[in-house]
Design brief:
mainly alpha; 2 strands; 6% strand; two-stranded parallel ribbon; Nucleotidyltransferase, domain 5; 50% helix
């Protein structure tokens, strides 16, 4: 067993980190029911089915959407995105530091979100879809 401090881990705590980052980025805050109407598709891994993970989703107002058991096609969108990331960034560019990689990933996210045309969304980029899903802003007096 590897006891190196940098080993890869996949606990319920690590599983929540991208959820937290996404909620802060897209909803502007991290608070009770801030992500109402959002659902998260996940497999039946112990980290996703844990009380800790599920309770955090409930707190944020996110619906838990476990994939059907033995239905790997539910991972298709995520797998396709990872392939796109590899083909357009990770296999064509090298990085000397983790910070360079982090900046490149942020830049890729912005380019992908604003320019990548997704067929199942009528050949529109993710930001256009997200803008339609946002509730209308309330006018403050």
């Amino acid at each position: 067993m590897c006891r190196h401090p940098c080993r890869l881990r996949a606990t319920r705590f690590e599983a929540l980190e991208p959820i937290r980052q996404g909620v802060r980025r897209h909803f502007g805050a991290f608070a009770k029911d801030v992500a109402q109407g959002l659902s998260v598709r996940h497999d039946h891994g112990s980290q996703y089915m844990s009380d800790h993970f599920q309770n955090e989703l409930v707190f944020l107002g996110i619906e838990s959407s476990p994939a059907f058991v033995r239905a790997p096609e539910g991972n298709g969108c995520a797998e396709r995105f990872i392939r796109t990331l590899k083909e357009n960034l990770l296999w064509v560019q090298t990085f000397d530091t983790v910070e360079q990689l982090r900046r490149a990933l942020i830049k890729f996210r912005e380019i992908y979100s604003t320019t990548w045309l997704i067929e199942r969304h009528g050949f529109r980029p993710p930001t256009a879809i997200r803008a339609e899903q946002r509730p209308p802003a309330t006018n403050a007096a």
